Amino acid sequence: MLIAIGGMVRLGLALGLLAALAACGPQRSDAYSRGELQRPGTVETGQIVAMEDVPVDGTSTGIGRLGGGVAGGVAGSAIGSGGRGSIITAVIGAVGGAFAGDAIERGVTSGTATRFYVRRDDGSVINVVQTNEARLQVGERVMMLEGGGKLRLTRDGAAVGRQQ
Questions:
Q1: Which of 162, 151, 148 is nearest to 40 (CA)?
Q2: Which of 116, 112, 117 is nearest to 54 (CA)?
Q3: Burial class of residue 34, CB neighbours in 10 A (0-12, 13-18, 19+)
Q4: Contact in structure between 68 and 14 (CB atoms under 8 Å)
Q5: CA–CA separation, 128 and 115 (whole Å)
Q6: 126-129: long-range pairs with CB below 8 Å, 24+
Q7: In the chain, what is the straight-line distance between the N-terminal and C-terminal CA atoms, in Å?
Q8: Which of 51-60, 93-102, 103-112 is predicted least confidently?
Q9: Domain segments of the chain: what residues?
Q10: Across residues 2-15, what is the average pLDDT?
């Protein structure tokens, strides 16, 4: 029964680590935090004149390091032959697990976004980096929504049927 409980603990730790890492993934550009709700923002319009994919570095929040260290320590203590050997393998497992957990977190949270070059209606050009769930394309009219310290692009619904 003791072995089954230890296995359940390890499984629980592994599942908890995976859930925490999944929550750290690249954020959708159209998602808002609760703090951004009911805040005023400005809206400008323009047209996408160019776009390119850009890499997004992964984050290292410490969740991966902590989870990997705990999982490595538990696994290392299970490998050790009891007493002092068990302590040494637990420490080695914790250190190795922390390094591995940090690398996994950075890998899981990295990705690709799109840099959009937008010509505002006043003629100036800006660039905005965000994910492209809306599948915006060069030539499309967009609204630039600014608020909460962020600038987001969304398709200009008023442009439908309007001559460009």
A1: 148
A2: 112
A3: exposed
A4: no
A5: 6
A6: 126/46, 128/152, 128/153, 129/54
A7: 72
A8: 103-112
A9: 1-27+59-109, 32-57+111-164
A10: 52
**Token output for 133:** 């769930």
| 3-state class (DSSP) for residue 126 | strand
Task: Kindly write down the DSSP assignment for every residue of 137-153, as one continuous string.
Answer: -TT-EEEEEEETTEEEE
CB 85 within 8 A of CB 41: no
Q: How confident is the model at residue 37 (pLDDT cuts 50, 70, 90)?
A: low
Are the beta carbons of 146 and 91 closer than 8 angstroms?
no
Cα–Cα nearest to 52, from 155, 147, 141, 138: 138
Q: Is residue 133 within a helix (H) or strand (E), and if so which, with residue range?
A: none
Q: Which of 16, 15, 12, 26 is nearest to 108 (CA)?
A: 26
pTM attached to this predicted model:
0.55
Q: Which architecture does CATH list for 32-57+111-164?
A: Beta Barrel (2.40)
Note the pLDDT tens digit of each residue in 119-128.
Answer: 999 999 999 9
**H/E stretch holding 45:** strand 42-56
The 3-state DSSP composition of the chain as helix, strand, coil percent (nearest 5) reads 45, 25, 30
